[in-house]
Amino acid sequence: MPEWSKAIMDRIQTETHFDGREINCFKNRPANLNAMLAAAIARSPDDEALVSGDTRLTYTAFDREIGLLAGGLKARGITKGDRVALLLGNRVEFITVMMACLRLGAIAVPVNIREGAEELEFILAQCGARIVVHGLSVVDRLPDRSALPALEHLFCVGADTPGSEPFEALAAEAPLTGTEKVDEDDIAVILYTSGTTGKPKGATLSHLNIVHSSMHFEMCMELGASERSLLCVPASHVTGLVATIFTMMQTAGCTVMMETFGAHEFLALTAAEKVTQTLMVPAMYNLFLLRCNVADYDLSHWRIGGYGGAPMPQSTINELSEKLPNLCLINAYGATELTSAVTILPIGYGVERSDSIGIAVPCADIRLVDEKGQDVPDGTHGELWIKGPMTVPGYWNNPDRTQSEFHDGYWKSGDMGSRDAEGFICLHDRRKDMIIRGGYNIYSVEVENALTAHPGVIECAAIGRPDPVLGEKMHVFIHTTDTSLDTDTIRAFVKTKLADYKSPDFVTFEPEPLPRNANGKIVKSILRAKLND
């Protein structure tokens, strides 16, 4: 029966945090994320902390860059609890600004640079960001300053942009060396995740949450000294942020940053930088297998191949095992509200239990419950409810959603699964009406709400359509009498409302109303069957 080592489990004790939750925590842990970084600097001052293109920073140089930016933020009035939004891709400035915020006790708000204009305005207004640091790619989608009363400064990385100050002007002349006193229950990061209401919710990741998730990755993936992880998923996503960036800080390892994923470029960088660990979506593994000859690259250092966000096809697992026999495949399941993974497949089970998302990480308390919230026996389907030091305290300024999605400290995932007698958990149905496209979660109601704003759309329904590379693509059925509507028009319209990856891949126009049940609800199972036919 698989289980984590006794040495790991002996490190756990019960504590009380947040709203009185009793949770299992590691006894010996960094006091907060600033302490985590300080330990890495002391342990490996001359080792590389970050690599991005031609930029290479040792931990000593990394510390200095953070200090200069912290001094600049402080000079502009940023204090403990203030929010600073990061609209940046995978580049060094994302990490240095984020850590500068934490040094001041401020809250970093990483935002996906692919978000649409309306979503950006909502997020920046809802979190009350005082400063926004952005790149060139989002300039045309930045909200009008009048819509953001809390905003005081905009800084642009990469070029001079009207309305924004150059990023270089943010740094102070001398680095700030001290850190603000921070409690581990304080919020470190707000990550916005889409909800069934169509409005993003800001999950509040505390120092305690991120410290524990980083330690879980370190222990469960058996990471040691001199690890090098390739960041090829967005840094603004919980996986990139925690599974790579903070986990490398916890191990005093190096984050190698890849701004845009490409199959050949990924393998070349993995080889050149002697990458040891990755955590990405199955679509990325599929792409390099489809487009590249793996044998052309020296991947001998690549030891851990983590994946999550979507099921990994068995054919992909078999091919990876054949072509990269030294790569240990590890499935991990989590969510933004869980600060990344809460189940991890133990090392050695990648092929044997490829059907499973793994077993609960050491500090996780996972219940499988029925519709009444009662625990179900092993082997019975139930909804996953998760509690632990990695479960966020709630949503930013959203008490209604916090109350509805959390119960007695447990986050109600909405995911249906079962647990066998050995502790392996398998997922059977994903959260209702969610489409996972290349690792990105898309709630169909978001797309449906956006589309119903089009005057030619009478009603619509978005469903997932299996795809061998991305896992799923989106297919939208639209009831309309407007014969001028076409797929390109619909896709362009959605892109004006939502992030580009939420634009439908396929559209079917129906002259008749969509099928509904006796309660008037659209029956998506009929639409899925229509696709299968």
Question: What topology does this entry show?
Answer:
Elements: H1 6-9, E1 12-17, E2 21-26, H2 33-43, E3 48-52, E4 55-58, H3 59-75, E5 83-87, H4 92-103, E6 107-110, H5 117-127, E7 131-135, E8 153-157, E9 165-166, E10 187-193, E11 201-206, H6 207-220, E12 228-231, H7 238-251, E13 254-257, H8 263-272, E14 277-280, H9 282-291, E15 304-307, H10 314-323, E16 328-335, E17 340-344, E18 359-360, E19 365-369, E20 382-387, H11 399-405, E21 406-407, E22 410-419, E23 425-429, E24 434-437, E25 440-443, H12 444-451, E26 459-467, E27 471-479, H13 487-495, E28 506-510, H14 524-532
Parallel strand pairs: 3-13, 5-6, 5-7, 7-8, 8-9, 12-13, 14-15, 15-16, 27-28
Antiparallel strand pairs: 1-2, 3-4, 10-11, 16-17, 17-18, 19-20, 20-22, 21-22, 22-23, 24-25, 26-27
Helix pairs in contact: 2-7, 3-4, 6-7, 8-9
